[in-house]
Every structure is written in C-alpha cells, then in structure tokens.
Predict the structure.
Amino acid sequence: MSATAAPRALGDLRPLELTKETRAEIDAAIARYPNKRSAILPVLWALQRQIGWLPPNALQRAAELVELPEPEVFGIATFYTMFNLQPVGRHHLQVCMTLSCSLMGADRLFRHLERKLGIGHGETTPDGRFTLRRVECLAACGGGPCLQANFDYHENLDEAKVDRLLEALK
Amino acid sequence: MSRGPLLFQDIDTPGLVRLDTYRAGGGYVALTETLGKKTPAECIEVVKASGLRGRGGAGFPTGLKWSFVPKDSPKPRYIVCNADESEPGTFKDRELMEKNPHLLIEGMILAGYAIGARTGYLYLRGEFEYIQRILDQAIADARAAGLLGQRIAGTDVAFELYTHLGAGAYICGEETALLSSLEGYRGQPRLKPPFPAVEGLYACPTVVNNTETLMNVPHILKHGAAWYRQWGTEKSPGTKILSVSGPVKRPGNYEIALGLPLRALIEEHCGGMRDGMKLKAVIPGGSSVPLLPASLLDTGLDYESMNAVGTFLGSGGVIVIDEGTCIVDALHNITRFYEHESCGKCTPCREGTYWLSEVFERLENGEGRPGDVDLLSDLADNILGKSFCALGDAAAMPIQGALKHFRAEFDEHVTLKRCRVRRRRDEIAAQFATGAHA
C-alpha cells in the first residue's frame, strides 16, 4: 500500500473502444463459464493488456461486458493487487520482499533500485519508463532475490545483474 | 540425469511440453487404459489405497476427498486445480507446469472421470501468465489430438478444461476463496460446511486439488497403489517435491521419498550451507508452519514426523535460516506478509495481523516495552482457531513456534532496546551481491 496519496488518475473519460484483439479475448473468456460474472478477471486482464492500466472508463466497460454494477467491479478490481488503478511505466518492476528473498538480500536490492531510478515504492520515473513496487512472494524463492518486470521473472539478482537488466529494458 | 523417482524422473527431457514428446515417454497411457476400462469407483479406490495426500499444504487424503462427491447429485460436477502456489517458500508447481503441462492435463481428465466431472478449471496465480500460455497451448494440442472434448480417445467420455488467471491475492490459495474468485467475486473464503465436494463451484459438487497432487494421479492409476507405496512411509506414502530456499549451496526443487531426514535434504541434496554460514532454523513447510531449530534437523520429512515435533510438512516450502538472521526480524517479515494478505473478512485475522505487525515493528526498532513478548503470544492465541479460515492460523502458528524455540531472542529485544543482528542482514546480502550465487 502506497503511503503517498496521489490524486486518482482518471485517464480518457470517453467510452472505451475495444481493439479487435481485446474483443476476441473477451468473447472467448465469456464462453468459458456458465455465467458472465465469472469472466470478470479475464475481462479486466484483457482491458489492462490493451491500456496498460484500468482507468474508470475501463471499469465501466468491464461492468457492461459482464453485466455487473460498476461499484461491484470497482470492489473486485481493488481486491486484487495486480490490477493497476493508476498508470504504470512501460516496465513495472515488482520486487519480492518476502522472507526467502529477504534472507538473500531483497532489501538491499530494493534500496539499490530506489537510488538508481530516483523513485520509491509505487512511483514512476518521469519518462514513464519504470514503475517500482515492493510485492509479496512471487513463487521464485529458490532464485531469490528476484523481481518480475511486467510478467518476466528475473532471479538470482545482484546489483550488477539488475543494472544490466535496467539497461536492457528500454 | 534423473532428478527424482516419479514426477521429476523425466522433468528435464527437452521438449516435454510438446504432446509427441510427452506421449513418447508413456504419456496419456494411463488415460487410454482407464477411460471406459475402469469404473470411476475403481479409480477412487486405487487412489484411496495409494494413500496419496494433498500436496498443497493440508495433506488431506485425496481418494477420500473424491469419495465425498455425492453419487446421486443431478447437478454438474467440477474438478478444479489449485495452481495458485502462493505459500511463501513454495515454487514447485511452477516448475512442474512449466516443464510438464500434459501430465497435469492428464491428471485433471482422470480426476474428472473419477468424480464424474465434465468440466475442469485450472486456477493459476496472476503472476503465472507465462505458464497460462504454456498450458493453453498444451490444452489446444490435447484437444486437437482428441484427448479433450467430446468422445475422448474414442470413448464416450467428455471433458473440457480451461485455465483461469488470478490477479494477486494469497488468499485465493484457500479452496473456498479460490472458488469465490473463479465465480467472479472478491476472493474471500466461504463457510464450511457445506464443503466444496457437496456445494462448491456454482453450488455444484466440486473437488479442488493441488497441482502436484493431480500430477501423481496418472502414475498411480497406471502402476497401482502398491507400486506407489514403494516410496515413503506407511502413513505418508509416495514422493514429495520440496522447494528449498535461503542460503544453502544449491537451492531449488527436490523430489524425495517421504520420510527423508531434513538434514539429508539440506546437507546432501542442497550441498549444505553456503561457505561460512551456519544453520540456525528451518521452516519446513512454507511460511505458515512453525520453524524448527537446528537441533531438530534429524526429523523425517513426512506428515507424522513433522506433527510429532510440533510443525507441518505443509506445502513443502523449506526455508533455511542462517545464524546471521534475527528470528524476530524473520517473523516480522512473515507477519507483515499475512497482514498484507489478510482478506479483511474476519476481525481476528484482519485486526490481529495488524497488531502483531505493530508489536514486531516496536521490537525491531528498539522500542519494545516490557510485556510486548507476552502480548505477541496473547495476540497469536487470540487468532489461532478463531479466524474464519486458515489464514489467521497461518499467521499465528509460526509466531508460537518461534516463541517456543527462540523466546530468549525476543526478550533480548526488549531488554537491550535494540536488535543485535538486524543490520547484519545487509552485510550477508552484500556477500551475494558479488555474484556468489551458485
């Protein structure tokens, strides 16, 4: 949870247009369950893939698609930590801080990233390239310390490796 | 080289994710030998006789769980794979699915056949998006080969299987919370009874099994219960994959016959501690279970031996803690995790984990007050057995275990007004920052 209460970003306020790919992904998702409600997570994922985060018009669209009241969709979206209700950078660096990684130096790694990027937990670099976040266990404990850059796992990290990773993520 | 007797025997075979490679190694033989040839009741009996127990953490007998599904219910039934793998210290299901997706698909079809389910859902934690892609491809390949869909392998058995991606919530590993999440609700647990076997997904009979559990099923149905019992102990038959993390020489996943002493796992399989480090304690079954001090390292890794020393085999997440680590700091880390992951539904867990964290924070910052250690114990006692689901127990039990074995270290934080070793964690980390990882 972020300590700094930045005003909530609103994004594009016009009704959200779905791309062809998003529409196809959502139709396929809805077909997998006996009711539309069950498709809410896949629908939110599809919208987040299209936009990068979930602005209010995406939540509104999700509510229409699965036929749920908007506040209920908001309640679901806020329950799960991986839905971004604020814009994130192109590379969302999610550093595991739980015990196994912590024993292997996660705290030190996180501080290194803070210094190197000049941002703290939950913040985004001004150029929109990186968002840095502390997260809980990523199921990569044997490769600690580790992080996920968007969905890609990077394990057995040290300062030199993480510096090379930052270079590679344009 | 084979990495284990059963699930890990061929895990590193190149291209095992492909259907032809999997079939060349005997894959889907259990399926063709079972569907239409053995009755569902016979399948349940074989799994019961094998003594297979749930590998996700609770260790409940799998065949017995299957037998709870009512035989006469007119409702559809569901088989659900719990691939949420969210217990800190555990990373076995990830490797199993990444490398051998078809074994899981075969296990789900067979489990579905045994309980009379025509639909299966595979619930993956949100971070496993890349595994969803691997599984979706494998499912498409199996469907194209007539192993999923209508008339599987030429029989009149029908079964459909879908993946479902979570979105970041530890609680969704709890089976009723998982079902809530799958139904499109916030992932909060439900009251039991009714148990999922009677009223689970969409209020229909449902079995939820862990990934590793389901991957044992094809082997058991193919070779029989007696064959499976060649490994393990009387009460804990078979093999288990243990995920070892922390400062050992070779962390990773190891498949062992149940009953292997913890010491052999750490010293032989993992090559012992990293140079210059000494083992202080081990969490044997994921962050939810009480830790064991070094003096109990000869305990066997099986359900009953672990229970006898006051802890659990759990999910098999073995977290090794070295002498340079403060136990209070380690428990603070775990407690902060449960505070973050408490779903907020019930008061003992939601408020209790918050207050536990507050007290830990004081102790670690040298602001511990007389009575704080007893307060921790009191808080843990007031969560244990009083929370809505097992998450509260998971937060309380490790603290009770740590107080049992390392009480003096807690007290010292109050009397010295500081943590003696906290700063050392960074120094230890610095040793690894030079690329010392094996």
